Each structure stands twice: as C-alpha cells, then as structure tokens.
C-alpha cells in the first residue's frame, strides 16, 4: 500500500493506480492511519521528511502499531548517511546527527532492533513480542497500553497476551499464498465476536459461488480487463480471496462505524484496505462515478426495492444497468444490479460550433 500526502505528491497516487499499484492519499499527522494494528510486514519511507522523533516519538509509534510482530521499518533519505550528504541537504552536521540520534532513541524505547545501516538505508525490526522488553524496562515513553481491541481503542502499540518469549503477538500467520486461505489468528483466537472458524470458511465458500456467477455477468473478469477493484463493504475479505486467482487486486474497505471490526482479519489473509465510512446513497454514487474509470463496472447486491432506487439514479448518470437474479435463483429477495459507467462527452454548444 503506497500513500502520499495531499500536496505536490498527490499525483503520484493517480500514477500508481494507473499502473495497477495499490495507493491512496494519506499522511502521518495527529490522527492515526486508517489501518488496523499488526497489518504490514514492512514499512518503507523514502525522503518523506517526517520528524519521527517529535511529539515523544508519536509518528514512529504509529508505524509500530501497524507493523506486524517481527516486521521491518526501512528509512532512507535525511538524516540517514548524513556524513556524506549533509552539504546537499543544506543542513549542519550537528543538526542531522542530533536528528538521527533522536530517531535511534525512539526506536530503542520501542524495543526495535537495528538490523543494518548501509549506503542510504537503515533497517529496524520490531520484536515478535514484548516480554523481554517489559522485563528489562526498555519502555519508558511513549507509554504502551493494553486493550481488547488494539485496532480502535489504543493509540499506542498493542500488547496481546503471550505466554513465552517464542510466541508471536496476536498469533503467527502463514506465508503467502497459504495465508489467503488459512483461518486468521483474530478468528481462531475468538477476538471477533460471533465469528468462528466455521463461519469464516462458510463465508469463503459463499463468495466462491458468487464470483463464479459474476464471471457469467462480467465475462472479462478473469482476463485482466479489470485490474483495480474496490470492495466497498469487505466484511471478512471473502470476495478478494475468491478473485485472487485472477490478475486483479482488491482494495477492501471496512466501514469505521461497523459493529464488527474485521479489517485486521483481512490483513491477516495478506489482503489490504482502509477504514472508510460511506454516506447517503446519492453521494455514494456520485463518488463512485468520480473514482471509477470509463467503462468500469459496479455490482450491487441488495433488496430489489433499493436496487430500483439506485437504478433510477444511475440512469440519470448515463450508466447502463440491469437488475438480475443472484446465483441462488429467482426466489431470493436479494437481487443483483450490474452497472457500467459509459464513456460520453457533452454536446457542443452553439458557440463551440
């Protein structure tokens, strides 16, 4: 997942998406990044000019929150290798050394191990758990808090319970691609209320059936015609898992206001996505029209009454759409609306002619 701030770098997000690379607007600031705890195996920052040492190491602590146990943080650019580049950066050696020393101090307080500093890169590794760190009282500030839900309730690094120094915080996960189909630790540990291993497997089977039906509705789905896909209510990531055999990637969205916080489950399957709330249906459709490419396709699954309302709006947006039965047949009250955003231009005015 690549992120760039809403400034002169904003266009990089569009370039990345056009190349089929997951990307979104994002920034290290006073609010947390829209990802769950223990989400990424590696975080990389190149010349991002973030003051990592400021605010008692708040920014670096946030990186620690989203890194998986044993994950790596890679930093390149100022102040790394300042002895060679300080003149080009137009900063004093003392200033750059002080900045790097402060970063090293925060990393040490987070109990990260510095793996290597070579050429323009420095690499740190987060421990697989914090038992030894707590015993040795490495943690001073920022403080570490415990929480039943580290994804939403805890600003700082979560501390899942472990029984030995060999245990992995939150549970070990499989390597890719076995990870996509294995029961995630958040499920097997009972961390998600009312969702167990059997329900997780049932959801995966359900989405296999649905995607097989979608191949009939959208013939080019397996061919690479669709590359960037957005699942606007991803739940357990079953749709993304079902299409993982195709040349596509899926941005899995879990509403921040959802009763079940399942985005961590999605990341434990090796999938990606952010928290994002949606608003009124009319504004959602306008937003979808804005972010979707011409001749892109949308599939809605809802009761027919709502689909009729949606179709009346999309018709006004010049989308081509059709309501049809789902894979279970005509007696299911839930129907499918398949819509295609058409490519069109406005008619020339008299002056333009």
Largest sheet: 4 strands, mixed
The end-to-end distance, rounded to whole angstroms, is: 46 Å
Report the mean per-residue pLDDT as an integer: 89
Give me the secondary-structure category. alpha/beta
**How many strand elements?**
11
Strand order of the largest sheet: 3-4-6-5
As residue ranges, the low-confidence spans are: 153-158
- Percent strand equals 15-25%
Characterize the overall form: globular
Provide the gyration radius in Å: 23 Å
**What percentage of residues falls in helices of 4 or more residues?**
25-40%
Helical segment count: 11
What is the N-to-C succession of helices and strands?
EHEEHEHHEEHHHEHEHHEHEE
Main features:
alpha/beta, 11 strands, three-stranded antiparallel sheet, four-stranded mixed sheet
Summarize this entry quickly.
It contains eleven helices and eleven strands.
Could you explain the architecture of this structure?
With 353 residues, this protein is of the alpha/beta class. Helices cover 31% and strands 18% of the residues. The chain contains eleven helices and eleven strands. The strands form four sheets. It has a four-stranded mixed sheet. It has a three-stranded antiparallel sheet with strand order 9-11-10, with helices on one face. α1 links the parallel β1 (2-4) and β2. The chain is globular, with a radius of gyration of 23 Å. The two termini are 46 Å apart. The relative contact order is 0.09. Mean pLDDT is 89; it is low at 153-158.
Produce the secondary structure layout.
Elements: E1 2-4, H1 10-18, E2 23-25, E3 40-46, H2 54-66, E4 67-76, H3 82-85, H4 93-109, E5 113-118, E6 121-125, H5 131-135, H6 185-188, H7 197-217, E7 228-231, H8 238-242, E8 249-252, H9 263-268, H10 281-291, E9 297-303, H11 304-316, E10 319-324, E11 334-341
Parallel strand pairs: 1-2, 3-4, 7-8
Antiparallel strand pairs: 4-6, 5-6, 9-11, 10-11
